[in-house]
């Protein structure tokens, strides 16, 4: 298969009269480095050199340094189960006038900074989706009053993680609306994987399972349901205690300051 792909690439280069520098060409490699990632037959993981940079990053002394740190870690957020949760105290400091001196850097910020560096250092490998396996793409989504989290799985292995903090207005939504908002966010995030193919969507909120049969919806719910109609998904209920995405949304850092 690799040789067939290589042949196709070389044919395109020849046809378009494009040239590849031989010294920069590597063939039949067990793994390759690509845009800060290590890609191999087992999946994709973060480049250890980038991980080392994050691990050794000193505590930011000003807003500019903090933004650089968050920019780097945000690039790898799909590998981090709790990214928006863990980064919440730090992202709060990026608001106008929030980080005016080192006194703004509280113990909570330092704890979030150290914890974020620790989880980045975890050796997480995301597997490639297999589009030939029907009904084996499972989406787990959970919502609490402060935010939501989800993991996209196939055969029990993670393809990607996502999480979302609710805005001030969104924290006042009903539980059902928050759960539906979490699903909408997740489907928009992963529509490239899920749109046009069947999958299972599991949630720990029972009313959401039956929402499609509710006769009367408000405008926001109707708009969301119209978007959901584009997906071929089976809704199932799971107990919150066994939802592996649960930890993403029930963390105190999700509380808006």
UniProtKB/TrEMBL annotation:
UniProt cross-references to PANTHER family, sorted A to Z: PROTEIN CBG26694, PROTEIN NYNRIN-LIKE
Q: Which InterPro entries match?
A: DNA/RNA_pol_sf, Retrovirus_Pol_polyprotein, Rev_trsase/Diguanyl_cyclase, RT_RNaseH
Q: Fetch the Pfam families from UniProt.
A: RT_RNaseH (PF17917)
Protein name (record): Reverse transcriptase RNase H-like domain-containing protein
Q: Where is the Reverse transcriptase RNase H-like domain?
A: 138-231
Q: Does the entry feature the keyword Nucleotidyltransferase, yes or no?
A: yes
This protein's species is: Volvox africanus
Q: Which Gene Ontology terms cover its molecular function?
A: endonuclease activity; hydrolase activity; RNA-directed DNA polymerase activity
Keyword set, alphabetical order: Endonuclease, Hydrolase, Nuclease, Nucleotidyltransferase, RNA-directed DNA polymerase, Transferase
């Amino acid at each position: 298969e690799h040789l067939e792909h290589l042949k196709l690439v070389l044919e395109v280069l020849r046809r378009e009269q494009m040239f590849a520098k031989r010294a920069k060409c590597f063939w039949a490699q067990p793994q390759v480095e690509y845009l800060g990632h290590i890609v191999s037959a087992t999946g994709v993981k973060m480049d250890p050199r980038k991980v080392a940079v994050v691990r050794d990053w000193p505590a930011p002394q000003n807003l500019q340094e903090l933004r650089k740190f968050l920019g780097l870690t945000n690039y790898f957020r799909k590998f981090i189960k709790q990214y928006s949760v863990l980064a919440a105290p730090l992202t709060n400091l990026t608001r106008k006038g929030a980080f005016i001196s080192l006194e703004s850097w509280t113990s909570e910020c330092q704890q979030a900074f150290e914890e974020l560096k620790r989880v980045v250092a975890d050796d997480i490998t995301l597997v490639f989706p297999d589009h030939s396996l029907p009904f084996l793409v499972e989406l787990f989504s959970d919502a609490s009053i402060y935010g939501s989290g989800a993991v996209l799985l196939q055969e029990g292995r993670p393809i990607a993680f996502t999480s979302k903090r609710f805005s001030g207005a969104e924290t006042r939504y009903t539980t059902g609306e928050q759960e539906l908002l979490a699903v909408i966010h997740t489907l928009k995030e992963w529509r490239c994987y899920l749109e046009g193919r069947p999958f299972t969507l599991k949630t720990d909120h029972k009313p959401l399972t039956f929402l499609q049969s509710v006769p009367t919806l408000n405008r926001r719910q109707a708009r969301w349901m119209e978007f959901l109609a584009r997906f071929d998904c089976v809704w199932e209920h799971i107990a919150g205690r066994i939802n592996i995405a649960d930890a993403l949304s029930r963390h105190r850092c999700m509380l808006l300051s």
